Amino acid sequence: MNFSSRLLENAVNEFSKLPGIGQKTALRLVLHLLNQPVADVDQFSNTIADLRREIKFCTECFNISDQDICAICTSVKRDRTAVCVVEDTQDVMAIENTSQFNGVYHVLNGLISPMDGIGPSDLNIDALVERIKKDEITEVILAVSATMEGDTTIFYIYKKLRQYPVKITTIARGIAFGGELEYVDEITLGRSIVTRIPYENSLIK
Q1: Which single residue of 34, 56, 135, 176 has CA 20 to 30 Å from 105?
Q2: Considering the chain, what is the average pLDDT of its residues?
Q3: Are strands 139-142 and 167-170 parallel, antiparallel or unpaired?
């Protein structure tokens, strides 16, 4: 792609680093910004910069937060005996949109994937075990995408937790194998939370 401006080219290259954004889409976004008032573009760039500098991760559940402990973990209306384990913040948002879960969360920040060099130590699994040890948790819901990496992660967590007096369940498989939670419609995801089953029942005998 030939550019008439070095500044334009640099901006397009930066936008094209975003997931799912090719150079043509990046160019459209940059040209759109060039047609906006300078004050609006400044607000846009400042918002992104503030996000990166000031965002925090909840010290309890590892969800993205403005404070050291997120609003879900500090809410007195949440059932702290039930912990829903998810891959990332997008999955928290997806489950919250169903209005079918009133417990708290634990964000793994990824899935076990040896092909990508991601092992158990790279995730927030040990922190989950510590929560089980010190908090009055009675159920752990493993709400992870139905993929090979997801099933591997679920099985690893199950082996780590089965020694503790806690009920381990998984969301019902109304979700197709290979499907990711963030793309599942709210009704299907909500029902899969409500109709969750003991993890042992999903193991091949």
Answers
A1: 176
A2: 89
A3: parallel
Cβ atoms of 101 and 118 within 8 Å: the answer is no
d(CA 90, CA 14): 23
The DSSP bridge pattern shows strands 56-57 and 139-142 to be unpaired
**Cα gap 188→179, rounded to integer Å:** 12
* Domain made up of 70-202: CATH architecture: 3-Layer(aba) Sandwich (3.40)
User: Whole-model pTM?
Assistant: 0.78
Mean pLDDT of 185-204: 66
Q: What fold does the segment set 6-54 form as a domain? A: Helicase, Ruva Protein; domain 3 (1.10.8)
pLDDT tens digits, residue range 75-109? 999 999 999 999 999 999 999 998 989 999 999 99
CB 140 within 8 A of CB 161: yes
